[in-house]
Specification:
Layout lengths: L1 H14 L10 H33 L17 H26 L15 E6 L2 E6 L8 E4 L1 E5 L4 E7 L4 E4 L7 E3 L5 E5 L5 E7 L11 E7 L1 H12 L8 H11 L3 H4 L23 E2 L4 E2 L2 H14 L13 H12 L3
Helix pairs in contact: 2-3, 5-8, 7-8
The chain binds dinuclear copper ion.
């Protein structure tokens, strides 16, 4: 029974999207290769050990001469071979191999790198700033990082509160976001696709709901996305959405959130200028749709206890519908 469970778990983990064994870029590819080498090597070592153990169990008992005590020279050769020579060769080989592979992960020091993207960790979401070009070409979004396929992207990692860790298994290993320190990571996607990740360092109550998506797109698609993100927020298309915008700007929403092109300039919560273009809400915890937006506005503390987003229960009925209608037009 236990074995069946173990095997089911093993197979299930192979099909999970967040697997270090399914690399989507060169850094993750090297890590996966190193993992396989270690796994196969130690698997073979364990197999040889079990075969030897089985052999000693089934073979006939040896002669007295073969069982000489250690201090009279019995078995000393085996101790030297099995205890020193083989581990020295195997572990030495692994050490040299891994040292050699480390050149695939250059250390990016401040001043030697011009990051294209800055990711700032917050309890419990990711602020994503696109730094390329002059200030009029820069913009901020949240939780979903778009990158063009086939080109290395340098990311500056910072935090505004506690230590977090940036971890997108298909792209790279973990790199921590540490208060007062700038860290860097270089990711590259080999093919288009959506690669999920999450915070890899315990950072409080909602650590496990601090998720993100890396969305790799063909270069022209990425440029189109980028151009669109640079635009100010869409104007409301009807009276209901217009009323929704009024409600947004006259309430607590605008104190924390920014919607570029409107009066909302809050800086402590995710930028909502193009909220409707995002797939998920609440740091990739819930799908971005009308029902979840309504629930999030009024009952964020039930969906994500401890988050900075309060329960705005004063919105109900028509007002809530208008507000969410406005949010859903922020394409
Ligand atoms: Cu952020 Cu764990």
């Amino acid at each position: 029974m236990a074995m069946t469970c173990f095997m089911m778990l093993a197979f299930a983990s192979c099909s999970l999207p967040q697997s270090t064994l399914r690399p989507g870029g060169p850094a993750a590819g090297t890590l996966a290769e190193m993992g396989w080498v270690a796994y196969i090597l130690f698997g073979v070592t364990a197999l040889v050990m079990w075969i030897l153990l089985a052999w000693t169990a089934v073979r006939k008992r040896g002669t007295l001469a073969e069982h000489e005590p250690w201090d009279e020279g019995g078995g000393q050769l085996w101790v030297l071979i099995g205890g020193f020579a083989i581990p020295f060769v195997v572990l030495g080989g692994v050490f040299v191999y891994q040292l050699e592979r480390m050149s695939d992960f250059p250390v990016h020091a401040q001043g030697h790198i011009t990051p294209e993207i800055e990711v700032i960790g917050h309890q419990w979401w990711w602020e994503v700033r696109y730094l390329q070009g002059n200030p009029s070409e820069q913009f901020t979004t949240a939780n979903e990082i778009h990158i063009p396929v086939g080109r290395p992207i340098d990311i500056l990692l910072e935090t505004r509160d506690v230590i977090h860790s940036f971890w997108v298994p298909a792209m790279h290993g973990k790199v921590d976001l540490i208060p007062g320190q700038a860290n860097y990571i270089r990711i590259q996607a080999d093919h288009a696709g959506t690669f999920p990740g999450q915070c890899g360092e315990y950072c409080g109550m909602q650590h496990s709901h601090m998720r993100l998506l890396v969305m790799a797109q063909a270069p022209d698609e990425y440029e189109a996305w980028r151009k669109h993100q640079l635009q100010p927020a869409a104007e409301p298309q009807d009276d209901e959405a217009m009323r929704g915008r009024e409600l947004f700007n006259d309430s607590a929403c605008a104190l924390c959130h920014t919607v570029r092109g409107t009066l909302a300039h809050g800086l402590v919560a995710p930028d909502l200028t193009h909220l409707a273009s995002r797939k998920m809400i609440a740091a990739n915890s819930y799908e971005n749709n009308q029902a979840n937006l309504e629930a999030w506005v009024t009952h964020a503390q039930s969906l994500k206890p401890g988050a900075e987003m309060p329960n705005l229960t004063s919105y109900d009925g028509r007002d809530l519908r208008f507000l969410v209608k406005y949010l859903m037009q922020l394409k």
